[in-house]
Amino acid sequence: MTLEKSKEFPMNEDTEKEIYECFSLFDTNKCGYIDVREFYFALKSLGLNFKKEEVKTLFLEVKKSINDKLNFDEFFDIASKHIHKRYNDEEIDQIFSLFDPNDTGKITLNSLRTVCTEIGENIDEEELKNMIEFADKNNDKVIDKEEFKHVLLSAWTNDPLSDLDDSD
């Protein structure tokens, strides 16, 4: 089993390791392959709640028969293309609301400072401003929900270009 980075769906090392460990866990006989049933439960354990028919479709995109088996590289390719889906909008909304207690739809410098203080993080004013500036794509000096979602997902992917807009 090789752990190659996906160029199409970059992710951080912890997520790559999680996928590897998941495959190893469901490769119960340690043969280097998992069947469609093990594949279904492996995806579930990664937080990817596909329906049975969706799992069959994913499996058959790689294999000719439902009776075939996936090797690690095939599993990794599928998992890496879909693992970002475990971060659903509801979870992102819940996290966002922690930074936006007044439900304004925006994270301000003041609300960011308040959250940092509440969790015991002593971050200086300049660093807080840098955090806002980094996430603020439309230069309105606040972070809206879409900008926040972008930051969360780019942290997951560990993409060094995630903060750049194609129009830059």
UniProtKB/TrEMBL annotation:
Any one Gene Ontology cellular component term annotated for this protein: myosin II complex
Keyword Repeat part of the UniProt annotation: yes
Family matches, as InterPro entries: CALM/Myosin/TropC-like, EF-hand-dom_pair, EF_Hand_1_Ca_BS, EF_hand_dom
SUPFAM superfamilies per UniProt: EF-hand (SSF47473)
UniProt-recorded Gene Ontology molecular function terms: calcium ion binding
Alphabetically ordered keywords of this record: Calcium, Cytoplasm, Cytoskeleton, Metal-binding, Repeat
Family designation: Belongs to the centrin family.
Protein name per the record: Centrin-4, putative
Record organism: Plasmodium ovale
Organism classification: Eukaryota, Sar, Alveolata, Apicomplexa, Aconoidasida
Gene that produces this protein: PowCR01_090007500
